[in-house]
Amino acid sequence: xxxxxxxxxxxxxxxxxxxxxxxxxxxxxxxxxxxxxxxxxxxxxxxxxxxxxxxxxxxxxxxxxxxxxxxxxxxxxxxxxxxxxxxxxxxxxxxxxxxxxxxxxxxxxxxxxxxxxxxxxxxxxxxxxxxxxxxxxxxxxxxxxxxxxxxxxxxxxxxxxxxxxxxxxxxxxxxxxxxxxxxxxxxxxxxxxxxxxxxxxxxxxxxxxxxx
Length: 212
Description:
The protein has helices at 19-33, 54-59, 64-75, 92-101, 135-140, 145-155, 173-177, 181-187, 194-210, and strands at residues 4-9, 37-42, 78-84, 108-109, 117-118, 124-130, 163-168. It is of the alpha/beta class. The chain has a single domain (4-210), classed as 3-Layer(aba) Sandwich (Rossmann fold), CATH 3.40.50. It is globular.
């Protein structure tokens, strides 16, 4: 059965040249090939301000680009959310997007004196986090703090479930250091080489085909 899928690309660089962008597009290619409908939200290309007060969060006017993003999320049966790990958490722009988007009236409904009604029930999601360190190290040593926060405090709080999480590690270290990637791969074997990256792309295509 075909599904409606919205892919949220959370990298703040609008050039779209990072491996996370490639993973998101691979997922979309697989989903489209399997007959699923796909929409993309590129957070880096949206225009919205920071929320600076509780009044803004609860009562402020929702920016036009955020309203369009909310419509795309509301439309979807399944979400793919891709973001890079920066300072152990979300990039600031992606965090600002989550604050603007998952607001009362869209994500939940109800006052402080009652349990909020979850408005996004019936949807499922997959979170993909890209990072420089090995994925298992982030999962077990750092306890995957940002992914757990997104899963529990935002998505599940809104009613989205089940949620799968994938960590893609060993990315980008050569470019950051200025050392050629092939040399960096030799000196630091945890860095994902071309074969590893292609396996990840194929894995995301398979996830997309399954809308999983």
